[in-house]
Design brief:
With 396 residues, the protein is α+β, with helices and mostly antiparallel strands. The chain has twelve helices and 16 strands. It has three domains: 2-189, tt1808, chain A, CATH 3.90.1570; 190-251, no CATH class; 258-395, Archaeosine Trna-guanine Transglycosylase, Chain: A, domain 4 (Roll), CATH 2.30.130.30. A hairpin with a 5-residue loop joins strand 12 (304-309) and strand 13.
Length: 396
């Protein structure tokens, strides 16, 4: 049993790069932590309106939900029987609510009744993910797996401890919900919580196994001392699990990507731009490797790269300077810098575009899709001048 415990601990301790795509900025996390601390020292903490304005709405912005658009609807109506109830925020993708957020004043403790209320709202409207928060704590529920708080709770985040638990907070980021990664992450969190509970319930067995192995090495003359050490080791195993759940892995705190307007590109040397299409989930690959693959292209000397991101973005959203374009690759073994799990779309004969470090930017004024006929089905070439001036993708 001891070997199983140690292997299990090891696997969870070193597998955080598999948790979630990078979406949260270090600066943003620290800003929210500072906001919470400052707000707690004011006389406004009993006000729900102030809690929303000072904490909850900036938090939604951090998670990449645009509170100034129809992506975030206020006081969303829910019909229950003959009455109409209202949820504070409905987070919307492709015209459908995907997350409900219920807010409470900062100094009000979140109750089980509050949890049951927002869970019921989600069940009525067929919204799987619902959130309850007072700006100090935040609870995420899955309405598909039960009815009560205990049955539906996915995770609870202590916002006062940010950036600790940032990975759990990232569950409800726009990217996580959009790509469906929230479901896989929720399952991993449930498995981790179950592992901690099992360790606590079977701690006596862990102590016995530690004792047996150590006594084989030390001899029975120090049995009492070994038993005490084994108890400490078993306690430490539980603590290590709990610390790993709370710790924000570096991988989810993305390096800051500069945002610019297309007008900022005017002073760059004229040249060709290769525009590649991507689904939303492909953006994680771009950020992770500062590169784009895998593309079938004949040219090897294109100075600029742009990425068209599909629904619901439907726009050319990212731009970078090309450092190099590989020769056509013959096998996955050529891809030494790319992890095996990110090679699924590899095909022999395709290339990888590597960007110059620090040149990847996000466009504040992305080039939109005017109609579906313009949607990119494959890469295309344009010029930097056209990229700067275009009103829509069709003008490229």
């Amino acid at each position: 049993m001891l070997e199983s415990v140690l292997l299990f601990c090891k696997s969870y301790r070193f597998s955080w790069d598999l948790i979630l795509p990078a979406t949260l900025s270090i600066k943003g996390i620290n800003d929210i932590a500072l906001r919470i601390d400052d707000f707690s020292k004011t006389n406004l903490t009993s006000s729900e309106a102030n809690t929303k304005k000072r904490i909850i709405e900036p938090l939604l912005e951090l998670l990449n939900w645009d509170t100034r658009s129809n992506e975030v609807l206020l006081e969303y109506p829910i019909r229950i029987g003959s009455t109409t109830k209202y949820v504070d925020y409905a987070l919307v993708l492709e015209d459908k609510p995907v997350v409900f957020v219920e807010a409470k004043p900062f100094d009000v403790t979140l109750s089980e009744d509050d949890s049951s209320q927002i869970i019921s709202y989600g069940r009525v409207e067929d919204v799987q993910w619902v959130v309850l928060t007072n700006g100090r704590a935040l609870k995420v529920f899955d309405t598909k797996i039960g009815k009560t708080e205990r049955e539906c709770l996915v995770t609870e985040v202590d916002l006062k401890k940010l950036p600790m638990q940032a990975e759990n907070l990232n569950l409800i980021s726009r990217e996580s919900v959009l790509t469906g990664e929230i479901e896989a992450a929720a399952k991993r969190l449930a498995a981790t919580k179950s592992a901690i509970q099992n360790l606590k319930e079977r701690q006596k067995e862990v102590v016995e196994e530690f004792t047996k192995i150590i006594l084989k090495i030390t001899g029975t003359e120090v049995k009492n001392r070994v038993e005490n050490i084994s108890k400490q080791l078993a306690d430490e195993a539980v603590k290590l699990f709990e610390q790993q759940v709370e710790t924000a892995p570096k991988q989810i705190l993305e390096k800051e990507i500069q945002t610019i307007t297309r007008q900022n590109l005017v002073d760059r040397q004229a040249g060709e731009v290769v525009v590649c299409p991507s689904k939303v989930e492909g953006v994680a690959f771009l950020k992770k490797y500062n590169a784009w693959g895998f593309v079938a292209m004949s040219k090897r000397h294109v100075p600029y790269f742009a990425l068209y991101v599909g629904k619901p973005e439907s726009s050319i959203l990212y731009f970078g300077e090309v450092e190099s374009i590989t020769q056509p690759l013959t096998s996955k073994e050529n891809l030494v810098k790319i992890q095996e799990k990110d090679k699924e779309t590899f095909e022999s004969g395709k290339r990888v575009i590597h960007l110059k470090p620090g040149t990847l930017v996000k466009l504040v004024d992305p080039i939109p899709l005017k109609n579906r006929k313009q949607a990119l089905r494959g890469l295309r070439y344009t010029t930097l001048k056209k990229l700067v001036q275009a009103n829509d993708v069709g003008e490229l």
